[in-house]
Design goal:
Elements (H helix, E strand, L loop, with lengths): L10 E4 L8 E4 L3 E4 L8 E4 L3 E7 L2 E4 L9 E6 L3 E4 L2 E4 L12 E6 L2 E6 L2
Parallel strand pairs: 1-3, 2-4, 3-5, 4-6, 5-7, 6-8
Antiparallel strand pairs: 7-10, 8-9, 10-11
Length: 117
């Protein structure tokens, strides 16, 4: 069976809540948060971001330029979201997707926020 190289992408899994003022960065991989993200907290990942709780801070996926990265969360309450440098702040988000489970992704250069399910 092939073994992964030392540079293989890995997921950083955080099981505790991410408090205000804290920054968590998943270099060369995905970030998985198993609890809530507070306002003022920042999630950064070169890959995807998964939040299994409310996302109230900032989430920036695809930091290394990966335009295929996505953000998934159980409740979108974010201050800002970004994929590969394209961003949207909370004031510009459709109220129909706020406080709902969503995925955030790039579609032909446009940042989309779509309900899950």
């Amino acid at each position: 069976m092939p073994q992964p190289s030392g540079d293989a992408a890995r997921a950083l899994v955080v099981s505790e809540p991410i408090r205000s003022g804290r920054q968590v960065y998943a270099a060369r991989g995905d970030l998985v948060v198993l609890g809530p993200v507070s306002p003022g907290a920042e999630l950064l990942a070169d890959g995807n971001i998964h939040v299994y709780g409310p996302l109230r801070g900032r989430a920036l996926a695809g930091l290394s330029g990966d335009r295929n990265a996505r953000i998934f969360c159980q409740s979108l309450e974010a201050e800002m979201v970004s994929i590969a440098g394209l961003y949207r702040i909370s004031e510009d988000m459709d109220p129909a997707v706020q406080r709902k489970p969503v995925q955030i992704w790039l579609d032909e250069g446009y940042l989309r926020i779509d309900p899950l399910g």
